[in-house]
Structure formats: structure tokens, C-alpha cells
Amino acid sequence: MHYLLWISGLLAALIAVGLVYQGLGARRDRRRYTHEGQWIDIGSGRRHYLVQKGAGQATVVFEAGIAATNLNWFRIQEKVSEFASTVSYDRGGLGWSSPCRTARTPGNIVPELHELLKGAGIKPPYILVGHSFGGLVVRRFALTYPEEVTSIVLVDPMRCEEWPPLDPAKEAMLDRGKKLTRVAIPMARVGIVRLAVNSLLCRKGRTAGQTAGRLANAAGNGGRHALDRIKDEVGKMPSEVWPIVAAHWSRPDYYRGMRSHILAVPDTVREMQDAGPIRGIPVLLLTPGKSMPLSDECVQRIGDNVKQVIATESAHWIHLDEPQLLIDAIEEMVKAAAPAAVAAAG
Question: Among 46, 48, 99, which Cα is nearest to 70's?
């Protein structure tokens, strides 16, 4: 009995230390890493975090992938802001934004984005750039507010026909994501996730990542899959944003938001599979060279003025693999949008 009491006391002490470590770290992160952006009230007590850079008549609006934040666009936004007004943001439930209150489908996200732009005083016309899941969001935005959009860039957009319920092949991937977030939420509360991601992304030298590796192995296949994805995706991002990524991924709310996005995938697929094509708005579709090009039928479902370009050196993250390809495409669209932007301003 004495031994059990000692073990229980030790566990309680470790949990208490972890809670303090997580709480202090979260407050420090918020003070240190949010100075570039601002929080915009979108109603009902919700505030979304927005980063605005550059100047110009038309505004380039960046929409990230399913569990990504504004940081995914860091390098692209820096370059594009040299010749245009730009906006990136964190969707509800991700990054520094308020927790989400609705299912993370494009139909629910688009009104939040529209209110965010309105609240920040960012007027149309907009050039929309969306990656992966974000590609579905910008498509829905263009269908909902076509008069506010001059052009769209889809960066390897999510293909509805490849996901449940249309295709059950990736059901296991969604299940793995759900299990991972279910484990990550309590681990993040007591600072274990913070310890792991800081070990991976914020330390240098031969011992960097060892703690993360041990914790990932302890978490099983889901943990190892997450670690591999971190190394693959984040490793392509500028090193100066790694500590901010670590701060995002240390928060329990991040995993709640990720889980909400994953749970909404079937409803997202149903919604966008039935969505009509975009009419009269130029769309540039960037497809990775390491994937099959979209068929003519799939392209026609997207819109009536779609040009597909193959990013020959890229995998899924084209904006990280071939950033200049995307930057050049956006610059062309900014120049093409200039007359419409001047007319709108007048």
C-alpha cells in the first residue's frame, strides 16, 4: 500500500509539473510569436489570427492545407508582398485562432473567412490561393462570392474522389489521424508534446530530435507517422518558423482543431463533390509532377476557365518544393487583376 501511495504521489507531482510547464510555455509563446499579426473579431466571441503584408489594389488571400496554419505560406507571402497586398490566417481551431464551433467544412469556413476580411477592412477584389484542403475552401469562396474574386490558384487541391465516402481507401489514414489527436490532446495538456516538438524543432546538435523520436516510438505507428510528416513538411519550411510551428503543435487546442478537420472530411467531400463549377473566373491548377494529372472531366468540374500546369519537381507541397513557380503565377494574376482592382476602387 505504501508503495502504491508513493507511485500515485509521484505521478501526481509529475502531472502538476507538466501542467505548469505547459501553461508557462504557452503564455511565453503567445507573447513571443504573435507580433506580426493581429486578432480580428468575427462574431460570437471568436477571434481569428491574421497576418497582412504588402500593399496593392487587389489582395492575395492564402488558404492553408487541412491542419496547416499561416506559417505554411511564410516564404511565399514574404515574396508576394513585395508586389501585392497579401493576407494569410489561421482557420478556427488552428494556430492562434479561437477554437472552432462548427464542422470544418468549406461551407462553414468560408463565411468565417469573409467576415475576417471584412473585419480587417480588406476589401475585394481577391486573388485566392489554396493548398490541398484549402483549395476546396477557396473554390467554395469563389462560388459563394464570385463578384469579389478575380482569379484563383489551386495548389495540388484535395481530390474529393480519392477520399471517403467516395473512396474508402484512405479511411485508415483518417482513423490514424483521429487516434493520434485523441492521444495528443491529454499529452499536450501536461507538456509531453511540447517537450517532443521542442526537441525536434528547437534544439541543435547531435542530440536534437532524440526525445521526439523516443516519444514517437512509444506512441506506436501513429507517432512515427506524425514524426515522419513533421520532418518532411516542416523541414522544407524556413528554419526561423520552426519554433513557431513547435508553439502551435504544443497546444491542446491545435489537436482539437485538427481532429475537427479530420472528422469533417466525409461531409467536406459530399459538399464539394456536388458543388458546381466556377464560372468566368480564371483558375490556375498546379499539379505535382509526382502525381497523376487531373483528368479533363475533373478539371471541368472545377471551372470553365481552368489551366492545369505540372510542377515537375514537386510532391504535394508545391509551394515548398517549387516556390518560385507559384510566386510567378501569382504575379501574373496580380498584373491581370490591376484593371478590375482600379475599377472597384473607383
Answer: 48
Helix axis angle for 221-233 and 171-189, nearest 10°, is 90
Cell of 216: 514517437
pLDDT digits (tens, 9 = 90+) for 115-170: 999 999 999 999 999 999 999 999 999 999 999 999 999 999 999 999 999 999 99
Topology adopted by domain 41-164+271-345 = Rossmann fold (3.40.50)
Overall pTM > 0.90: yes
The DSSP H or E segment spanning 191 is none
Number of neighbours of residue 213 by Cβ within 10 angstroms: 16
Task: For residue 129, report the phi and psi dihedrals to the nearest 5 degrees.
Answer: -125, 120
Could you give the CA distance from residue 61 to residue 257 in angstroms, rounded to a whole number? 21
Q: Quote the CA–CA distance of 169 and 93 in Å, as a whole number.
A: 27
Q: Lowest mean pLDDT: which of 97-106, 193-202, 323-332?
A: 193-202
How far lies 322's CA from each of 98, 118, 317, in Å?
32, 32, 8
Q: Domain-by-domain residue ranges, the chain? A: 41-164+271-345, 168-263
- 317 phi, psi to nearest 5 deg: -95, 75
Q: Do residues 139 and 285 make contact, with C-beta atoms less than 8 angstroms apart? A: no
